[in-house]
Amino acid sequence: MELNYEFMVRTFGLLLQAIPVTLKLTAVTLLLATPFAFLLALARIYAVPYAAKFASAYISVMRGIPMVLQILLVYSLLPSLLNYLFKQAGIAYNIFDLDTIWYAYIIFTFSEIAVLSEVFRSALGSVGDGQIEAGLSVGMNRRTIYWRILIPQALVTALPSLCNVTVTLIKNTSLAFMMAVQDITATGKIAASYGYNYVEAYLDVFLVYIIVCSLVQIAFRISEKHLGRFRHTSQISG
Amino acid sequence: MLKVTGIFKNFNKHEVLKGIDLTVNKGNVVVILGPSGSGKTTLLRCINFLEKADRGHLDFDEISLDYDTVTRKQINDVRKKTAFVFQNYNLFNNKTVLENVTEGLVYGHGVEKAKAVEIAKKAIDKVGLSDRYDYYPSQLSGGQQQRVGIARAIAIEPEVILFDEPTSALDPELIGEVLTIIRQLAKEGKTMVIVTHEMQFAREIATHVIFMEEGVIVEEGNPERVFSKPEKERTRQFLSRVLPPEYMI
Ligand SMILES: Nc1ncnc2c1ncn2[C@@H]1O[C@H](COP(=O)(O)OP(=O)(O)OP(=O)(O)O)[C@@H](O)[C@H]1O
Ligand SMILES: [Mg+2]
After folding, report:
1. Can you tell me the distance from the alpha carbon of B47 to that of B56, in angstroms, rounded to the nearest whole number?
2. Best of B47, B48, B74, B93 to disrupt the A interface by mutation (most A CBs within 10 Å)?
3. From 3.20.130.10, 1.10.530.10, 3.40.30.10, 3.40.50.300, which CATH number describes the B2-82+151-247 domain?
4. Which of B50, B83, B138 minimises the CB distance to A231?
5. CA dist B20 to B78, B183, B217, Å?
6. In this predicted model, what pLDDT tens digit does every residue of A165-224 receive, in sequence order?
7. What's the complex ipTM?
8. pTM listed for this prediction
9. Nearest Cβ partner of B94 from A133, A230, A234?
């Protein structure tokens, strides 16, 4: 089989231009999910009545639904539902004008809330109550202790998991093509369909994902080193 | 100065403190002794509300409160007058030695940053770590970490410092350096409540000794008397177990 190298190079350039869309999907999702995930984690750590139950139920339900199914369900139901509601409420806005990337944000955020809350919970738990108590004993309040002592340490502990979560999410966002979002995968598919150069296009897509994910992993490793300066330092006593 | 009366505390129906009374006067060094599980740690923790007692009364200078109706403000007021030295140091691991001490000053007591650094350095110098300001806890030995714990406590100039077995997590050769600092604080007239299993040290430093068992105070008094002529059989048994024979009469 002959590969069309000229096509591959050209498509590769197109795919590079789609990287920002994939990164945007990933970053916005993580940013939207973080505060909710944090609250769910706190609810479980402090066994808040009802909230803790809700959190565990939410997490296990989200875990049980394949991403593809979430997309099919939400993407086929939500627009018509919203359209109906808007009509009933007499809102003139045409929901079908909404950029479909918003559906992607919503779907990915709902599932990342579950994933992140588990990461946060174990990371916050790993710091231990002793330092909270030490903070209280010198007159600090809980919020200050969380911001200045607990979260910075939990973040460092969580970085390897966060790296995994991010890389997995980058790969999952490739499903956004189902919602007509022009990310890396969608761009590759479209390029391929013009001249039926599927193999070349998918090889390109494959390469681009590998590059993006590797860079993300490197970035995480650097931040771990930087933010984790206080740990793993060799014991100097005397 | 500090007086708690009728403290009760249970964990899941298991009564751990059964009506404890404790008075600490200015300049006193009160040492609490007792077998493991007798409630010593719980008592200390109830004093500054790391644990909330079920019942009891606390008077601390102008503060007067009942544990079952205590307000957040009263809790904060008591915490501002006390400091706690933990068995496991509980240093802030993401902060340097200097920051460990300034943290409470700045964010707990509202001291201005520059002033806090000045106070913190003095406290750290006092525990002999003036060459370690910028070290992280992970770079210090256990003894050094506990000395930072003490510096953090004295920096906020508490009226009472509560020590919960400050040396029992330490290797034997590191115990001395920590005890030396506590002795020094006693000499300066600091008011302290100390839970310890270091009997020799207890006898030497205490102005008042309390022997606790199963959530009640079995016996208390001045150290000479409690150590050499314990009135209660339980105290005698405990001391004979923990003291080397030459101390017993
Ligand atoms: N958070 C807790 N939850 C349940 N039980 C507890 C808790 N803290 C303490 N206890 C129980 O209360 C009792 C008294 O504990 P405490 O730690 O006050 O004893 P202690 O005198 O300090 O003992 P040690 O000398 O071993 O430190 C023990 O039986 C302990 O198991
Ligand atoms: Mg104890």
Report:
1. 11
2. B93
3. 3.40.50.300
4. B138
5. 18, 27, 7
6. 999 999 999 999 899 899 999 999 999 888 788 899 999 999 999 999 999 999 999 999
7. 0.94
8. 0.88
9. A230
